[in-house]
Specification:
Layout: H1 27-35, E1 40-44, H2 48-56, E2 61-64, H3 68-71, H4 83-98, E3 105-109, H5 119-131, E4 136-138, H6 146-154, E5 159-164, H7 170-173, H8 183-199, E6 203-207, H9 211-220, E7 225-229, E8 237-240, H10 242-245, H11 267-279, H12 286-289
Parallel strand pairs: 1-2, 1-8, 2-3, 3-4, 4-5, 5-6, 6-7, 7-8
The structure holds 3-methyl-2-oxobutanoic acid.
Keywords: Cytoplasm, Magnesium, Metal-binding, Methyltransferase, Pantothenate biosynthesis, Transferase
Catalytic activity: (6R)-5,10-methylene-5,6,7,8-tetrahydrofolate + 3-methyl-2-oxobutanoate + H2O = 2-dehydropantoate + (6S)-5,6,7,8-tetrahydrofolate
Function: Catalyzes the reversible reaction in which hydroxymethyl group from 5,10-methylenetetrahydrofolate is transferred onto alpha-ketoisovalerate to form ketopantoate.
């Protein structure tokens, strides 16, 4: 960093990272956390400043989610987000965290249409996100993604799978609805989750899945850490869209969201309160935030 850019007036990110007060999050560290029952606290992030604040607040993992299509780009769904846009936002997040602790685990979301065609297409897209600085890529879908996950993992790319409500296929699902309520749907989710762990997925987002089913799936997957959103407190970790947990929206708050800005003096404090609530198990509260 040159002297002329060391003290930027815009935002207050430090020019260089001080020594990190915690060990960097890695796959072995996530496994250790899991084994001692420590919950994983994840948030979405899309830019340098919020990512840096989240890292400072002790968030374990940041998901550069394609939800940026809605929260940053004002689209009605995630479907229109491109790989170039995902790489751009991933680079921004990576730059932000490098200027604070640089210890957070960063997951880049593969957007719609960039992994469905073939395993080779998925590899090219995943490589672009990894080169942008992600530590892991996320892709949505059940059984049909298993061979793609295996192909990426064998080539050294850590993968987070995503089951339940998969926003890229919201049109096929008929809306943002709880998934896995019927016996057949629940069976399919159990089967897909096991197959994804066997293929090498080390993380699995479970979105809007009934709490009892998400807990059961979590117990079946010792090597694949379930991260719930609207799926109750029994998962290995939790994720929320950052704007939601900061209360930045004008419409109806989704049932599974808690506004952590209430009672917080700053965004950093709200994020730290989120981390504390995930870790001590007070968020989510199944009676309020789950099905
Ligand atoms: O894109 C995203 O932010 C996500 C989370 C909602 C899990 O996939």
């Amino acid at each position: 960093m040159s002297d002329t850019t060391a003290h930027t007036p815009y935002g207050t990110l430090p020019a260089a990272a001080p020594l990190p007060p915690r060990k960097p999050i890695s796959l072995p560290r996530l496994q250790e956390m899991r084994e001692r029952g420590e919950k994983i606290a994840m948030l979405t992030a899309y830019d340098a400043t919020f990512a840096a604040v989240a890292d400072h607040a002790g968030v374990d993992c940041l998901l550069v989610g394609d939800s940026l299509g809605m929260v940053c780009q004002g689209r009605p769904s995630t479907v229109g987000v491109t790989l170039e846009e995902m790489c751009y936002h991933t680079e921004c997040v990576v730059r932000g965290v490098r200027r604070v602790q640089g210890t957070v685990w960063i997951i880049g979301d593969l957007p719609f249409g960039t992994y469905q065609e073939s395993r080779e297409q998925a590899l090219r897209s995943a490589a672009a996100l990894m080169q942008a600085g992600a530590h892991m890529v996320k892709l949505e879908g059940g059984g049909w993604t298993v061979e793609t996950v295996r192909f990426l993992v064998e080539r050294g790319i850590p993968v987070c799978a995503h089951l339940g409500l998969t926003p890229q296929t919201v049109h096929a699902l008929g809306g943002y609805r709880v998934q896995g309520r019927s016996h057949a749907e629940a069976e399919r989710l159990r089967r897909d989750a096991l197959a994804l762990q066997d293929a090498g997925a080390t993380m699995l987002v479970l979105e809007m899945v009934p709490a009892a089913l998400a807990t059961e799936i979590t117990q079946q997957l010792p090597r694949c850490h379930t991260i719930g959103i609207g799926s109750g407190r029994g998962t290995a970790g939790q994720v929320l869209v950052m704007h939601d947990m900061l209360g930045i929206h004008l419409g109806k708050t989704p049932k599974f969201v808690r506004n952590f800005m209430e009672g917080a003096a700053s965004v950093r404090d709200a994020m730290a309160a989120y981390v504390a609530a995930v870790k001590d198990g007070t968020f989510p509260n199944d009676a309020l935030h789950a099905w």
